[in-house]
Design brief:
Blueprint lengths: L44 H8 L7 E3 L6 H6 L4 E5 L2 H11 L12 H16 L6 H13 L30 H7 L2 E5 L12 E4 L17 H12 L5 E6 L2 H9 L3 E13 L2 E12 L2
Parallel strand pairs: 1-2, 1-4, 2-3, 4-5
Antiparallel strand pairs: 5-7, 6-7
Helix pairs in contact: 3-5, 4-5
The chain binds S-adenosylmethionine (SAM).
Length: 286
Amino acid sequence: MNADARQVPPLFSETIRGDDAPGTGAATGPLKPILKWAGGKRWLVPELSRIWKEHAHRRLVEPMCGGLAVTLGLMPQRALLNDVNSHLVNFYRWVKAGLRFGLPMRNESTMYYEHRRRFNELIRQGKADTSEAAQLFYYLNRTGYNGLCRFNRRGEFNVPFGRYKRINYEPDLAPYQQAFANWEFRVGDFASVPLEPGDFVYADPPYDVEFTQYAKDGFSWDDQVRLVEWLAAHRGPVVLSNQATSRIVSLYERFGFQLRFLEAPRMISCNGDRTRALEVLALKGV
Ligand SMILES: C[S@@+](CC[C@H](N)C(=O)[O-])C[C@H]1O[C@@H](n2cnc3c(N)ncnc32)[C@H](O)[C@@H]1O
C-alpha cells in the first residue's frame, strides 16, 4: 500500500500516457507474464515474432491484452494495451506507476478468503482503482484456483482457494515498470480502442466454442463477428488468433484474411481421443 500516492493512475476509462510514467523506455529483453491468465499465448510468441519483426517500428495494439504474454514477448517500443477487465488494467497501471507490495502474501486458505473478502469490500466501496486493490488482485490471481478471474451476479469475485503446493510471490516489478513506461493501458470494449492507420493490431479474443450463440467468458458469437468486422476496417497490419472451429475459419475467410493453422499446446477431447487443439492465425496486411 505504499506506492507513491502522487502517481495514482487515472480512473478506469481514460488512457494513462507513457510520458506520465517513470522510466526512460522499454526494457530490451522479453519478460514472462506477471499474472496467470486463461488463454495466455506465450507459446505463440516465436511465430508472432517472425511476423512482427518487419513491423517493429509501429505501435503494437492489443485490444484484448489479458495476461500480456504477447506484448511482453515482443517488447515493442510503443504499445496500446486494452482489456474489458478493469481490475486487470488497474493492476497494470499500478505496476507502471511503481507498485510496491506491502500486503502479507501467503499460500493459506484463511488468508486467501480474508483477502478475497477485502477485495470485494473495496469493489463495493468504489475503491477498486486503488493500490490496495491492485495488490489484492495480484495475490488472488496467484493464489486462487487456476488464476481464474470470475465474478458472481452481485459483482463479487468468487474464485476459490487454489491449493497450489508452492507459490513464489514477490516478483521483481522493476523490469515491468521500465517496459511499461512507453505503453498505454486502457479499459473498455475492443471497439472503443482508438486505432491509428499505421498500428499493428494483435487481437486474441476468448475462444469460440462451437454450437452456441451464448456468451462464453462474456464473449458471444455476435462479438466474434463484431471483432472481425472491426479488424477488417483497420488499414494497418492485423493478426487475429482463435480456436479453429469451422465457423471461425469460414468467418475469417469471408473477410479476406489469410489463414495459418497451428497445433496449440492444450489437448481437447475428440471422439473419445485426446488430441491437440487447432489454432488459427488470421492475417491481413502483414
Ligand atoms: C484469450 S484472453 C487474451 C490472452 C492474452 N493474449 C495473453 O496472451 O495473455 C482474452 C481477453 O479478452 C478480454 N475481453 C473479453 N471481452 C472483451 C471485449 N469485449 N473487449 C475487450 N477485451 C475483452 C478478456 O478479459 C481476456 O483478457
